[in-house]
Write a structure and sequence with these properties.
Chain lengths: ~375, ~300
C-alpha cells in the first residue's frame, strides 16, 4: 500500500508542469458561458494545443495513474477543463476505443484528439430518464442505413456537436434491455432539429433533439445490433468513474479561497463556520484519497473503472453542493449577487445529484451490485 | 502508486481476523459482556505473542518491524471484533514499558478528554490519574474513570495535542466497526422478509445500507492514506470520517434490524457504544475540525 509515484510518472508530471507554464499564458481569454461558438472554439483550441504537445490522448491511452497526474496538474495550473470535449474525450471516445472496430477507431478518435470534432450524448428521452432502458427512439433497417425517428432530451452541447452517441431501439419486440443499439449519428444529417433548453443557471447547456427519419449508416453502429445496453454500461462506467477527478482538485482550491475570504470579511471568527470549513477540508481530502484508491483499482483491472465510480459519484455530488452552500454562508447576503465568485457554480452544482444518474439511482446500484440486495422488481 | 493492500498485508489481515474469530468470537463476546470489568489476561498475552503490541517495534528490539499501515489493519480487525481493553495505549507503550510488547503488562493512559479506560485492570497507567473516580460507563465493555481537574470542555482549554498515532489507530478501530455494521445490515436486509419480500428490496432500507457503504469506503480511503503518509492533516481527516462512519453506521444498522436492533442480545449496541467511547478517547472532534480549518489558511499569509 503506497502513494508514491514511479520515476517515470514523476518525470511526466515535471514535463507537463513545465509545458503548462509556457502554454497557458498564450491561451486567448475565456468566452462568456452564453457564447457557444466561442466556447467551442476555445475548448477545441486547447485540446489542439494538448495534442500538438503530445498530451492529446491522455484521457484513454495513458495509464489511469498518468491520467490522474494530468488532471491534477492541469487543474492546479488553472488550465481549461475538457469543456465541449467532455463527451468525446471522457466517454464516447473511451467507449469507441474499447468497443469499436479498427475502422471506427480510425474514423472517430483522431478528430476528437486533435480538437476537431465535438460529440454529444443522446441517451435520455422524455419518458426514459432514470429508466433509460425504456427508451423508444426507433431505428428501422433500410438497406445499409438505419432510419431513426423519435426524440431525445437534456442533450448537453447538442447545439455545437458534430456527432451524437445515440441509443436507439432496434428490436421493439425484445425485452427492453435486449433491443437497444449504440449508434454514432452525424449531427448534420437531414431530419435533426435541435431546440436549446435554458437551465436554471440561465445558460443553454442542454437541448431537446427531434429526429425525423434520420438516416444513419449501419456501419456507424458500435457493438452488435441489440447489444447496445452492454456498450452503454461501458460508457456509463467511464462517465461516472473518471470524469470528475479534476474537479476534486478544483474544489480543494475553492475551499482555500473560501477560507481566505472568510478571514478577510470577519466570518472566520465564527467557530461554527470555521468548523464547517474544517469538515469540508476533511471531506475533499478523503475524496481525493478515494480517487487514488479507485485509480489504483482501475490500474489493476485494465483501466475500466468499476462500481467504485458510483460510490465516488454519490459522495462527491453531495459534497460539491455542500461546498458551494458553505461559500454562500461565507458571503452572507452578498451570495445573492450572481457576479460574486462561486455563486454561478452554486447554481450549476444543483445538477450534480441528477445528471449521469441521480443519487437515488446510484444508491440502488451500490445496494444491489456491491451489497447484493434484491432488486425492486 | 499502488494504493491497495499488498499480498503480505492481506495475509496479515486475515491472520488477525482468524485469531480473533477463534479467541474472541460471538460466545466470548457475550461472556465478556456478562462479566464486566474483567480483562482476559490470557487473551492479552496471546495477542502479545502474536505480535499485536510489538508490531511496530524494530526486530532488533524483539518486535515485528512493520509500519503504521500494518498496525492500522490489525486495529481495524480489533474494532470489527469489538475486542475489549486498552489496546491502543498498550501498543503505543511497547517500546517504553517493560512487558507491554509481549502482553504481560496491560497499559492504559489518561486520554486527552480526561478519561481513563480499564484503570482497575491495568498494570501501568501513563499520565497523572490522581483522584480518578469511576463513572457508570455507557459501554459495558469499557470501564471508565474520570480524572478530576481536567477541563470539562477540553476544546476550550490549551489541551496538549493528542499522539497522532493514537488518533489514527482509534480511527482504524472505528473503521472496523463501520465495516462490521454495514455487513450486518446488508446481511439482515437480504434475508429478513416482510410484506412477502426481503426488506432490502425496499429502497428506504436499501438506501440506508448504500449510504453506510459509501461512508465506510470513503473513510477507508482516508484511514489507509493517513497510515501511509502519517501526515497530521491526513490523520485528522481520517478520524473525522471514521468517527462518522462508525457512529452513523451503527445507528443505521440498528434501524435496519428493527426491534431486534434494540435488544441487549444483538451486538449492534456494543458497536454504537464503543464508537461513542472512541470519539472521546484521544481528543474531541472539534480539535480536528479547527486544525483542518487552520490548514486551509496555511501558506496564504
Ligand atoms: C445538467 C444535465 C446534463 C445532462 N446531460 C445529458 C446528456 O448529455 N445526455 C443525456 O442523455 N442525458 C443528459 N442528462 C439527463 C440525465 O441523465 C437525467 O436527467 C437523469 O438520468 C434523470 O432522469 P429524469 O430527468 O428523467 O428524471 P426521472 O427519472 O423522472 O427522476 C425524477 C425523480 O425520481 C427519482 N426516481 C426515478 N426512478 C427512481 C427509482 N427507481 N427509485 C428511486 N427514485 C427514482 C429520481 O431519482 C428523481 O429524483 C442531463 C441532465 C442534467 C441535469
Amino acid at each position: 500500500m503506497d502513494l508514491a509515484y514511479t520515476p517515470d510518472e514523476e518525470e511526466f508530471r515535471a514535463r507537463l508542469r513545465e509545458w503548462l507554464a509556457k502554454a497557458l499564458p498564450t491561451l486567448p481569454p475565456k468566452p462568456s458561458p452564453e457564447d457557444w461558438p466561442g466556447r467551442r472554439a476555445h475548448d477545441l483550441g486547447w485540446q489542439r494545443m494538448l495534442h500538438d504537445a503530445g498530451y492529446g490522448d491522455v484521457h484513454w491511452d495513458a495509464s489511469p495513474t498518468l491520467r490522474l497526474i494530468f488532471l491534477e496538474e492541469t487543474e492546479k495550473a488553472g488550465a481549461p477543463y475538457v469543456g465541449a470535449g467532455f463527451v468525446g474525450l471522457l466517454h464516447a471516445g473511451p467507449t469507441i476505443a474499447a468497443e469499436g472496430t479498427d475502422e471506427q477507431r480510425a474514423r472517430w478518435l483522431p478528430p476528437i484528439l486533435r480538437g476537431e470534432e465535438v460529440w454529444c450524448q443522446g441517451f435520455s428521452e422524455p419518458d426514459a430518464g432514470s429508466d433509460l432502458a425504456a427508451l423508444r427512439t426507433r431505428a428501422r433497417r433500410d438497406g445499409d442505413d438505419y432510419v431513426v425517428s423519435g426524440s431525445k432530451i437534456w442533450t448537453s452541447h447538442a447545439e455545437v456537436a458534430d456527432w451524437c452517441e445515440l441509443l436507439v431501439r432496434t428490436d421493439p419486440d425484445a425485452p427492453k434491455h435486449r433491443g437497444i443499439s449504440w449508434l454514432a449519428m452525424p449531427m448534420d444529417a437531414p431530419g435533426i432539429t435541435v431546440r436549446p433548453l435554458k437551465t436554471l443557471a440561465g445558460t443553454t447547456e442542454f437541448a431537446e433533439m427531434f429526429l425525423d427519419e434520420v438516416r444513419v449508416p449501419v456501419a456507424n453502429r458500435v457493438g452488435e445490433e441489440n447489444d447496445g445496453w452492454r456498450v452503454t454500461m461501458v460508457t456509463l462506467s467511464f462517465e461516472r468513474g473518471t470524469a470528475f477527478v479534476g474537479e476534486v482538485v478544483a474544489c480543494r482550491r475553492v475551499l482555500r479561497e473560501l477560507a481566505a475570504e472568510a478571514r478577510g470579511n470577519g466570518r472566520w471568527d465564527d467557530p461554527v463556520l470555521r468548523r464547517r470549513l474544517g469538515r469540508l477540508n476533511a471531506e475533499f481530502r478523503a475524496l481525493w484519497r478515494l480517487t487514488q484508491w479507485n485509480v489504483s483499482e482501475a490500474e489493476a483491472a485494465d483501466g475500466i473503472p468499476g462500481v467504485g465510480g458510483s460510490v465516488f459519484k454519490l459522495r462527491y455530488s453531495h459534497a460539491r453542493q455542500e461546498l458551494f452552500d458553505a461559500a454562500a454562508e461565507v458571503l452572507g447576503p452578498a451570495s445573492l449577487d450572481l457576479d460574486r465568485p462561486w455563486m454561478s457554480d452554486r447554481l450549476s452544482s444543483l445538477s450534480y445529484t441528477i445528471a449521469a444518474g441521480t443519487s437515488q439511482i446510484q444508491r440502488n446500484i451500490v445496494g444491489e451490485r456491491i451489497l447484493g440486495l434484491p432488486k425492486e422488481r | 502508486m499502488r494504493f491497495q493492500l499488498t499480498e503480505d498485508q492481506r495475509a496479515l489481515r486475515s491472520g488477525v481476523r482468524e485469531l480473533l474469530a477463534r479467541r474472541f468470537g460471538p460466545e466470548q463476546l457475550r461472556a465478556a459482556v456478562e462479566a464486566p470489568g474483567r480483562l482476559q489476561k490470557g487473551l492479552w498475552r496471546e495477542l502479545g505473542e502474536a505480535g499485536f503490541f510489538a508490531l511496530r517495534l524494530p526486530e532488533s528490539q524483539g518486535g515485528v518491524g512493520l509500519g503504521l499501515p500494518e498496525a492500522v489493519l490489525a486495529f481495524e480487525e480489533a474494532g470489527r471484533a469489538l475486542l475489549p481493553g486498552p489496546l491502543v495505549a498498550t501498543h503505543l507503550a511497547a517500546a517504553e514499558v517493560p512487558g507491554a510488547a509481549t502482553g504481560e503488562t496491560v497499559v492504559t493512559d489518561v486520554g486527552g478528554c480526561g478519561l481513563v479506560e480499564w484503570l482497575s485492570a491495568a498494570d501501568v497507567v501513563r499520565g497523572d490519574d490522581g483522584g480518578a473516580v469511576p463513572l457508570r460507563s455507557v459501554d459495558p465493555l469499557t470501564p471508565l474513570h474520570r480524572v478530576p481537574g481536567t477541563p470539562s470542555s477540553p476544546w476550550a482549554a490549551e489541551a496538549p495535542g493528542a499522539d497522532p498515532a493514537a488518533v489514527l489507530l482509534t480511527a482504524a478501530e472505528q473503521l472496523g466497526s463501520a465495516t462490521r455494521a454495514c455487513e450486518l445490515a446488508a446481511q439482515h436486509a437480504r434475508t429478513r422478509e416482510q410484506f412477502g419480500r426481503p426488506i432490502g428490496a425496499f429502497q428506504a432500507v436499501k438506501h440506508l445500507c448504500a449510504e453506510m457503504l459509501v461512508r465506510t469506503e470513503t473513510a477507508r480511503a482516508a484511514v489507509y492514506a493517513a497510515a501511509v503518509t502519517a501526515d497530521p492533516a491526513d490523520i485528522d481527516t481520517a478520524r473525522l470520517l471514521a468517527d462518522d462512519a462508525a457512529v452513523r453506521g451503527a445507528r443505521d444498522c440498528l434501524q435496519v434490524h428493527g426491534g431486534m436492533g434494540f435488544t441487549w442480545e444483538f451486538e449492534v449496541h456494543l458497536h454504537l457504544k464503543r464508537a461513542w467511547v472512541r470519539t472521546h478517547r484521544t481528543s474531541d472532534a472539534t480539535e480536528s475540525e479547527e486544525r483542518l480549518a487552520a490548514e486551509l489558511l496555511a501558506g496564504s499569509g
